[in-house]
Amino acid sequence: MDEKMMILAWQTSHIMNSSGNYKKAIKPSDIYKSIFDEDENKKARKGELTPVNRDEKNAELAALQAKFNR
């Protein structure tokens, strides 16, 4: 399915570019991002929960409270 979607994105990008309605050329990667791309998987992992150091959290909270005079 991923390969078919990549082919469809390639075809669609050629149709869009040949229409002349876009200032910049459209790349197939602008239309469809593969699930196997390394960069995309790293970006998706950024949304995951990460453990928080309690001391760092308290220091940042104290800095915010001092900044807003609370």
From the structure above, extract its key features.
elongated; mainly alpha; 70 residues; 0% strand
Structure overview:
With about 70 residues, the protein is mostly helical. The protein has helices at about 1-20, 30, 40-45, 55-65. It is elongated, with a radius of gyration of 22 Å. About 0% of the residues are buried.
Instruction: Give the count of helical stretches.
Output: 4
Q: For this entry, what is the oligomeric state of its chains?
A: single chain
Number of strands: 0
Largest sheet, if any? none
- Over the alpha carbons, how many angstroms does the gyration radius reach? 22 Å
Mean of all residue-level pLDDT scores: 85
The dominant shape is elongated
What is the chain-wise order of helices and strands?
Answer: HHHH
Structural class label: mainly alpha
Low-pLDDT residue intervals, each spanning 5 or more residues = none
Helix amount: 55-70%
- Beta-strand residue fraction: under 5%
Distance N to C terminus: 55 Å
